[in-house]
Structures are given as C-alpha cells and as structure tokens.
Amino acid sequence: MTDSARIDLWLWQARFFKTRAMAGAFVAAGRVRRIRDGVESRPDKGSRSVRPGDQLVFVLGARIVDIEVLALAERRGPAAEARTLYVALSGEA
To answer: What is the number of structural domains in the chain?
Structure first.
C-alpha cells in the first residue's frame, strides 16, 4: 500500500459520500480544508493527496466534520471498517 491516496477516493472509502464522483465534486467546489504539518490548504481537485496524519475539516449537512486521517484503505468496506480510517477531533464524525 502507498503512503498517500486521492482525497476523493479516501472520502468515498471512509463512507462520507455515496459515490466517488460526489466526493470529487465536493472537493473541487473548495469545501474541504486539509491541514498537513500545520499548513492549511483547500485541495482544488479530487486527485490531490491525503495521508495518515492529515486533518480534514468540512461541512456535511448541518454538522462540521473535523477528523484526522489514521489509515488508508485498499477498498470500500463496511461501515465498521471505514470508521477505523479516521478519528473525530471534535463533535461527531
């Protein structure tokens, strides 16, 4: 397994979006903040990378999702498996 993954693929595998296309459109719209090594950025396309240790902040529905990426996935597994990919930093993810 590599040390990074496409952000759209990771968001889909972590089950934040029903399709990878939806995740990619969400990222392309500038609605995700990625914090890596203390530097905040807004990935502008789904092909941008995410890796363990990155913090992602975005709004889904009426809630703010603030998570830290713990692991990368090889596939889109069941919800219980997806929850092992991240940890919520505040509130509920």
So the answer is: 1
